[in-house]
C-alpha cells in the first residue's frame, strides 16, 4: 500500500486513488506505507521514473473537488483543484452541494456515483448553497488525472504549504516561512526508501555547490528523530532534517511516493516537482535551481506560473 491523503482520494470524485504494493522493476520510486489518517485504496498502479508522469486515467470522468462527510444539508466542498472542471465551472471551496442533476445529495458517495455514470465531456448540474443563496452550476466533466498529475496541479504555481507539527533537528529551519528569500529544495524521504539513499549524497553535493548562491536543501521525514539522525549521518545527508511527526506536512504536500522533491522559489511559490530518482534527470534539476537563483528575490508578485490543467474535452 502507499500513503494517500484524503484530499487526493476525494478530489477524484469518482472513486479512489490508485495504490500499489511496489514499484515496477527499474523504477526508482518507493511507495509510501499507510499513515493515519489514510483513505482510499484501489487498483494497483505502476509508477513512472523520476521526471516522467503517468498518463491520465483514460475515459474516467472527473469533477475535481474534495468533500466532507455530508449530512442532511448536503455535502460541503472543502477544496477545489486548481485548473479542474469544477474550478472552470465556478465552484468554490465552502460551497455546499445539495443536488446533482436534480437528485438530492447527502453524502459524497452520491456525487461520486453520479459523476461515474457520465462520460468525459458530459455536463452535470450542481445545485449549490453559497452563503444562504441557491446557485446552479453546470460543470463539463474532464478526464481524471493520475495521482501524480493531481499533485502537480495542487502545488505548481501556488504558495508552498506551511509545515505542520514538525520537529527540526540540529538547527534545521522550523517553518517554510523561514526560507523566504532563498531557493528551497524540499526532499521528502524515509530511511527504508532505497532511492532516498541514492539521492541524499547528490543533494548534499548540490547544496555544497549552490548553497553559497542561496540554495537551501531541507530533508523532511516521518521517521522518528533518532532514526532520522542516524540515517542522515550514514548516508551523507549534509543538509538539515525536519521530522514530520504525524505526517501532517507530507499530507499538506500530497506526497504519495518517495523520494519527492519540491522546488520552491525565493518568494515561497512552488515552481517544480520531481518524483522518484533518476540520475539522468539531475542536470534538469540543477538547471531549474540555477534559473530560480537568477530570479530577483525582492518582495512583490510572484512570477506567473499557471497551474497545470486537465485538457477540456474536444469541442467543449
Total beta strands: 16
Within the CATH hierarchy, at the fold level, what is the topology of the largest domain? Glutaredoxin
Mean pLDDT: 81
- Secondary-structure element order, N to C: HEEEEHEEHEEEHEEHEHEHEEEH
CATH class of the largest domain: Alpha Beta
Main beta-sheet strand count, sense and barrel state: 6 strands, antiparallel
Count of domain modules: 2
Amount of beta strand: 15-25%
Provide the structure class: alpha+beta
Helix content: 10-25%
Count the helices. How many?
A: 8
What is the assigned CATH homologous superfamily of the largest domain? Glutaredoxin
Known CATH architecture of the largest domain: 3-Layer(aba) Sandwich
Which of globular, elongated, flat, extended, rod-shaped describes the shape?
A: elongated
Low-confidence stretches: 1-27, 33-57, 300-316
For the CA atoms, what is the radius of gyration? 20 Å
- State the end-to-end CA separation: 37 Å
Amino acid at each position: 500500500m502507499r500513503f494517500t491523503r484524503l484530499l487526493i482520494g476525494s478530489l477524484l470524485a469518482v472513486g479512489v486513488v490508485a495504490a500499489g504494493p511496489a514499484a515496477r522493476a527499474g523504477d526508482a520510486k518507493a511507495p509510501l506505507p499507510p499513515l493515519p489518517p489514510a483513505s482510499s485504496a484501489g487498483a494497483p498502479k505502476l509508477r513512472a521514473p523520476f521526471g516522467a508522469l503517468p498518463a491520465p486515467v483514460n475515459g474516467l470522468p472527473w469533477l475535481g473537488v474534495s468533500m466532507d462527510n455530508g449530512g442532511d444539508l448536503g455535502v460541503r466542498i472543502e477544496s477545489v483543484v486548481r485548473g479542474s472542471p469544477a474550478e472552470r465551472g465556478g465552484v468554490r471551496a465552502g460551497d455546499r452541494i445539495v443536488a446533482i442533476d436534480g437528485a438530492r445529495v447527502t453524502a459524497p458517495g452520491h456525487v461520486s456515483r453520479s459523476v461515474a455514470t457520465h462520460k468525459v465531456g458530459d455536463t452535470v448540474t450542481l445545485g449549490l448553497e453559497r452563503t444562504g443563496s441557491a446557485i446552479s452550476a453546470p460543470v463539463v466533466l474532464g478526464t481524471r488525472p493520475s495521482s501524480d498529475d493531481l499533485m502537480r496541479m495542487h502545488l505548481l504555481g501556488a504558495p508552498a504549504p506551511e509545515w505542520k507539527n514538525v520537529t527540526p533537528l540540529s538547527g534545521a529551519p522550523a517553518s517554510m516561512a523561514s526560507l523566504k528569500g532563498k531557493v528551497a529544495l524540499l526532499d521528502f524521504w524515509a530511511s527504508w526508501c532505497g532511492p532516498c539513499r541514492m539521492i541524499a549524497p547528490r543533494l548534499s553535493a548540490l547544496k555544497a555547490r549552490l548553497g553559497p548562491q542561496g540554495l537551501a536543501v531541507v530533508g523532511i521525514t516521518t521517521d522518528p528523530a533518532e532514526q532520522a539522525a542516524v540515517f542522515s549521518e550514514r548516508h551523507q545527508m549534509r543538509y538539515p532534517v525536519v521530522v514530520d511527526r504525524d505526517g501532517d506536512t507530507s499530507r499538506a504536500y500530497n506526497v504519495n511516493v518517495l523520494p519527492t522533491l519540491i522546488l520552491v522559489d525565493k518568494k515561497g511559490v512552488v515552481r517544480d516537482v520531481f518524483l522518484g530518482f533518476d540520475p539522468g534527470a539531475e542536470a534538469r534539476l540543477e538547471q531549474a535551481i540555477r534559473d530560480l537563483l537568477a530570479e530577483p528575490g525582492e518582495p512583490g508578485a510572484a512570477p506567473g506560473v499557471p497551474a497545470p490543467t486537465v485538457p477540456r474535452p474536444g469541442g467543449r
